[in-house]
């Protein structure tokens, strides 16, 4: 630092430092571009997981999906760019310090001790970010989907790399750390299914009840309103699902559009009850 | 330390030491300013999570929010400044010691052994601080919010980086370490929802009951007092939510302001019971 | 970097660098080929686990299995090739930098600190990938199988190295991280079994009931439709499985094809009930 | 150690050693003073958590609180001083050994291996101490408070940095390690709340019962004895908290002084029962 | 690498490299032979755990056991040989590189960073292999045994070092990672025991019932079919196992061959019921 | 080792080695004395936790406590002395080896690899010892105390640094590892409390029952036998602890000597029942 | 390795290598002897835990215990000797390689990377061995004892350092890893206790029933058969253990020899029932 370096040495040092800094900026820019390209490719379908989306996406909503992909790419890219900048600039500074023969060991010691101390505690944070990154990459859910995140169930209001924000049915807002989610159940992909179990008396006419329920199923499928915006297949009637000394249980199911199973279930209950009433067959307590 | 250094060397050392110390102070001040600016930007909306607040905040309370933001910025900045000071001053001292050719290995050894021993045990502490930092940054809750922190449910009385202090409904004060909170449920953001399930007899008049309940819903929405300060939408009546051999269950829900769901629920119960009574329809035990 | 090296040294350096890079590319290509061969052998039956598949695979579907094996080999190979490329190219770059006498310590320091910080948090990710790799290698399940993954039960829709995507019976899509799966139950390998417990009154004629049930078993086995596409063995009637003050419980079981146990169970219930009815023996509540 | 050092070297070594030891003692004393000052400031309100105490502390007990603060400061300072002494004296000894050119590597090796072995096992111990330190610093509870520490509920009998000693209601003494406490519920800060749920028959006169209960609330608030030493607000009567086919549940609550909720609850039960009896309204089993 | 080494040096290097490679191959072969011998000794009874098998193995099935031992030895040896080869070949390559004065630091750096990252995540894998190795070594179970592995209960279909494959009673195939099994219950070693609890009325004749049950026990032991292939001891009748206001419970147990307890239990139930019926003593609901 | 050192060097080495060994023995003895003194001081009341014992110890049993303290001091000292000896002797041997210029790197490598492998696995062991050390130091329990250790409840039969041996009420002996105990409940320190809840009919005379129970309380306190050796305060009668449609629950409690609560409870039950019987007030089922 | 060393150097090297190997063998033999002596002393009562056995061991079975001790010593010594051999031989080989100036860094690198990878995964294994070592040392249980190991309850069939083999009451064989056992309950040490709770009607004659039960207790104690081989103290009758509106519960307990409590309980039930019957006092359902 204070050695009697001749002018030549000083000039060489100055040139070296300028070169190092220029190089650092160039590499940083290259890294940012590379990240942008990678993230875009990952988000728009060139990734391993691109086949996930094909089946789950109804047609005609390409624009909406395109927008969602772009947002995901930005969220992911933003953090990766920060990390790249920190690494490259940090390396540049350390190289300059070394070129100037300034001792960097004390600095590394201080930062190292602190770094290890914090590193252990920050594991959870890194886990959250990695989990969030992959959730976005795999497009497991988006704003507006109804998901079961284990700790909470509700409608997604926001997704960041660290937390997912849900609002449950009581209006409570839940912040769930992404790293604590081991499995996600998404109720808004592709289709849902409405169920109804119909317990009748042990000595009921098995064939008659089945015919009655199949009739309800056809009636539902014939209803233009339901068919258009709620169900996607004719409801299906299963035979004796359960058998006890007091009841026979029949089951009727209907494949519906993602968010329509609750409404279809209510409709199903109403129609089945009406049909049973008019046939004089009461429901009984199952098992 | 006791080598026969000529005067020139001593003077050079003295100058170097003074320079190092001056540099350390300058860098420390710069770091503090940088932290202040970063924290302010994060707290006032330039952060990743700023969009979180938009939807959850009713209008006209900007001043209050501004104050809350300022406090959050101070809490976060305070710890970061302490950490920066310790790192910079520690580096400065080590550099001076090295410049004086005093052996620092023994010191590093002692501190290192102790540091590792404490480091492992302090993981939890660091986790608490990191979790607290992000909770503040994302503004997940503030003083006065009613939250479900898993370990305890109650009104937030204080938020620090390490613990959150709640008071539950029995008046018990709870100290919950931030790092042990994996999900937060906040009941005071945006809106809440009041529920009531109405079980009537299996052979009740489905349509009649539904009309009756819808009438109650309209009556509530028409009540100026409720509409002004408690509910935000006309209550909604769902059809047959549940069906058993003994009862039909209807459901009625009302979207309310954040803290009003308990009161609206009581009102709902009173009105529904009165309406059923006057129509001569008793509630029954649901399945 | 800026030393006055004579031309000879510069030329030697340039040749060395070119050689290093050529070598790196050659080694990378060799590694990729090696991986392709290893993965293919593992996937097509040369592995430790090849005996697993033999018993579980019905005949005549070789082509389908061949396709599935090829896909698995590609999925596995893709990640291994990425890892090999990163290691080999990274080594090449570091060797070139060293040859150029550019100091790489600062770079390693920056990357190392970051690497350790991320390394701890990425454990879960690596666990997921390793678990996924072995699940594929051992062919534990494939698209279309019905599995119990602990966190969720349903039909497999997609398998990647990190997550398995299921759809449960309600139409909910589940993303389960492979590393969190400690045991897999696959309902679609080889055969399943349909059960029915038949409780009759405590004072029923034990021998008579048994004969009646055996008759039902023979009838089922004689049914050409069932025999052809659903069951694989004549149903078996066990004696008194349970005995209480109010009932005797008989059990009847039938070995079926993988996905047919639900349908066979319904058929079994229908036939047993009909047989009991015609013999005037009512089922009772089992203890 | 046995080199032929001239007298000059020996004298220089002797002086250096004396200087090192003097320096170590001086630094140790400075560190102790610094710790004393820091701990006192933290304990008497200059800390981050000082605002916690303000609201929770009734007036007029400053002396008692002052004493408690002093004790906390001593407990915390004691351990910190021990740690500082060990580090400084250890460094001093190692420096002396190095100055004497005695090889310290073997010593460090032995101590290091043992240190790592013990270090892992001692994590829990360090966690307990850190947790205890912060509990004291934040004044979460003190001797005499009734707390819920998860593992045990009772009156605090002693607080040390490692364990908290409670005595539960059966007279059992509990030793709970501070590090295992993830949340503390303190029933002795500020106020408590007494509850009573009053279920009456489904067809009871809603308005009449409410008026009756409000009358009891006023009566309680008017009672000088209760008002002086037990309750802090007029009891509050809520409307229909719960509604079933057999009962209507009213709720009455009273905010009390920290330790008075049990007594106020008993009083409440007595008065409500008497009032209901005199009005001829029996309590019923709530749903 | 490009230094002006005279021919002598080059030749010496070449000889050294050849020697290193030959040595590596020789050592590898020696290691493989050593492993084969060790594993065979361990598997055929020279190990610590050999006494485990003695009691659990019925006579006359030596050939079968010999085959099973051989297979276990192969499974275990295969992995150990892979590990030995990798270590020895890796060491050889590194030694050659060093001999050639090629810098291996960059390579070690790249591999090391990756190695640590993967190492943490691969813990579970290593645990699985170690657990599998010891399970095989101790012969805890083999193909065909019925085991309770905690996560699943069923018949073992395959055992590899990483997973155990079971098939449960419903025909579901379970893959259980060996490392997640903390305890194994094997129902197919040595003998099993059939149980039956016989509750009779509180005022029944204790001595009479006991005599009746002992008679059943003798009858069972006298049955040649049962004695030959199912039970190994005369059934034992215990006195009053349980006593309540409504019933006296007697217990009868029979030691059976490993897989025969279910059948013996059914036989026991039939015979006890018949005996009680003929004596006019009804079973009652036990407390 | 085989260098041509002149006699002078050999003699110097020999002297150095003797000196090192003498020094090691001297330091070891000093360390043992220091440990003895420290442990004695800690065990006899000079420690942080000494105030714990004051309140919990009845008077007049100083000798017994003195003996217990001495034993604790010996148990603790024994392990610490072993550790000190191992460290000091190990350091001595390594120093001698180094002085002899014998290469110790291979030894350290072998021991180090083994040490790390064992170190991780031995964490639990170290935890047990540290926990045992502090339990002894804090005198949480001793032989003869009745404790609740979570995993088992019973009378302490032996305390070592690694395990605590209990015998439960069925005579089963439990070995509980000290490190797995997160909280200890000691029933034998200071006092215990006997409880009795007295449910009477909803329409009972509240005041009359209370007077009756207070009379029983006085009677118990007046009984010289109980007062002398079992209870330490007059029993206390609380008012209406619980109120339902069918019962009013009163509570009576008595503070007793540590092991007397079971006997006092039986006495309490007998006396209360007799008193209620003579007053014609039956107990009812509490809600 | 290929340097032009004169014959002198070669001879010196050869001598050194022979010396190192001889030394290694000598040290290994010394270590084995030391281990044998230590383990014998630990197993035969010179250890910390020797006092554990004194109270738990009935007299006259010294020979059996001596045998058991010897076996334990062998089991423990065997593993320790293996570890010592590996360390000493490994050190010897490394020292010879270094003496020959063969570079050992590549070998250490390969082994080190593998070692760390395996080390993490082998933690569980080491835990099992350490736990097994201490269980043997403390003689917590032996072959033939009935123990509760948490994961399984049964009779110990074999104890090795890694697993404990039990057989439960159904004849199932359990392999429990020693490291997963946090507490052991041993039912075969010293004594057991038989219990019987006797609920009689609320209005029964308390004194009369107690006299009756005490009479049964005396009768049992007077029975020579029981006294000789089953019980060790006169059974004890406690007063009113429980009191409800429908029953008074008395308790009678008897201290028995380790394995006799089940038989004594049956005898107790028979005698108490007979006595109650002859006195016309029926047992009732306890609360």
UniProtKB/TrEMBL annotation, chains A, B, C, D, E, F, G:
<dbReference type="Pfam" id="PF21088">
    <property type="entry name" value="MS_channel_1st"/>
</dbReference>
<dbReference type="Pfam" id="PF21082">
    <property type="entry name" value="MS_channel_3rd"/>
</dbReference>
<feature type="domain" description="Mechanosensitive ion channel MscS">
    <location>
        <begin position="125"/>
        <end position="186"/>
    </location>
</feature>
<keyword id="KW-0472">Membrane</keyword>
<dbReference type="InterPro" id="IPR045276">
    <property type="entry name" value="YbiO_bact"/>
</dbReference>
<feature type="transmembrane region" description="Helical">
    <location>
        <begin position="79"/>
        <end position="97"/>
    </location>
</feature>
<comment type="similarity">
    <text>Belongs to the MscS (TC 1.A.23) family.</text>
</comment>
<feature type="transmembrane region" description="Helical">
    <location>
        <begin position="6"/>
        <end position="31"/>
    </location>
</feature>
<keyword id="KW-0812">Transmembrane</keyword>
<keyword id="KW-1003">Cell membrane</keyword>
<dbReference type="InterPro" id="IPR049142">
    <property type="entry name" value="MS_channel_1st"/>
</dbReference>
<dbReference type="InterPro" id="IPR049278">
    <property type="entry name" value="MS_channel_C"/>
</dbReference>
<dbReference type="InterPro" id="IPR011066">
    <property type="entry name" value="MscS_channel_C_sf"/>
</dbReference>
<feature type="domain" description="Mechanosensitive ion channel transmembrane helices 2/3">
    <location>
        <begin position="83"/>
        <end position="123"/>
    </location>
</feature>
<dbReference type="InterPro" id="IPR010920">
    <property type="entry name" value="LSM_dom_sf"/>
</dbReference>
<dbReference type="Pfam" id="PF00924">
    <property type="entry name" value="MS_channel_2nd"/>
</dbReference>
<keyword id="KW-1133">Transmembrane helix</keyword>
<dbReference type="InterPro" id="IPR023408">
    <property type="entry name" value="MscS_beta-dom_sf"/>
</dbReference>
<dbReference type="InterPro" id="IPR011014">
    <property type="entry name" value="MscS_channel_TM-2"/>
</dbReference>
<feature type="domain" description="Mechanosensitive ion channel MscS C-terminal">
    <location>
        <begin position="196"/>
        <end position="283"/>
    </location>
</feature>
<dbReference type="InterPro" id="IPR006685">
    <property type="entry name" value="MscS_channel_2nd"/>
</dbReference>
<protein>
    <submittedName>
        <fullName>Mechanosensitive ion channel family protein</fullName>
    </submittedName>
</protein>
<feature type="transmembrane region" description="Helical">
    <location>
        <begin position="103"/>
        <end position="126"/>
    </location>
</feature>
């Amino acid at each position: 630092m204070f050695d009697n370096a001749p002018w030549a040495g000083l000039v060489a040092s100055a040139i070296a430092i300028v070169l190092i800094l220029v190089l650092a900026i160039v590499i940083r820019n290259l890294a940012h571009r590379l990240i942008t390209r990678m993230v875009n490719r990952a988000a728009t379908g060139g990734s391993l997981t691109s086949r996930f989306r094909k089946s789950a996406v109804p047609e005609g909503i390409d624009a909406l999906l395109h927008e969602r992909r772009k947002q995901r790419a930005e969220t992911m890219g933003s953090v990766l760019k920060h990390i790249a900048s920190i690494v490259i600039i940090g390396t540049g500074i350390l190289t300059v310090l070394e070129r100037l023969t300034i001792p960097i060991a004390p600095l590394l010691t201080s930062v190292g001790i602190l770094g290890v101390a914090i590193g252990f505690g920050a594991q959870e944070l890194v886990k959250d970010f990695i989990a969030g990154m992959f959730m976005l990459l795999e497009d497991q859910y988006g704003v507006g989907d109804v998901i079961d995140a284990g700790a909470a169930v509700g409608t997604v209001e926001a997704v960041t790399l660290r937390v997912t924000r849900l609002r449950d049915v009581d209006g409570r807002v839940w912040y769930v750390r992404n790293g604590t989610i081991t499995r996600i159940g998404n109720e808004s992909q592709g289709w849902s299914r409405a169920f109804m179990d119909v317990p009748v008396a042990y000595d009921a006419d098995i064939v008659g009840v089945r015919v009655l329920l199949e009739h309800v199923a056809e009636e539902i499928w014939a209803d233009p309103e339901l068919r258009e915006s709620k169900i996607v297949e004719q409801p299906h009637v299963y035979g004796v699902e359960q058998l006890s000394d007091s009841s026979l249980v029949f089951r009727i199911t209907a494949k519906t559009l993602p968010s329509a199973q609750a409404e279809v279930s209510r409709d199903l209950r109403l129609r089945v009850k009406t049909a049973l009433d008019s046939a004089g067959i009461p429901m009984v307590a199952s098992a």
